[in-house]
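Exercise 7.
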Amino acid sequence: MAQTLTINDAASHFLEYLRRVTQRGERFLLVRDSLPVAELRPVPASKRLADLPALCASLPHLSPTEATDFADDLAKAREELARSEAHDPWRS
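Solution. The predicted structure, written as tokens, is:
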């Protein structure tokens, strides 16, 4: 849960609060006149492209029947799309 700080206190001791955020993972809600205006918190960890294969491998897999049904659905959708007239949303 975030601790509440006034804007003045945050500005006066910014480096200390920044250190607490980066080293301890603390979060602070900055308020002005008792109204929340900003949050000082750690940046969420980002994903790397190198992690993608492991992420994909961790996802549930389709059963053979589900995979066949999915392939059939895709084939039907492609057939319907090929039969339909292309619609240009920009044409007047």
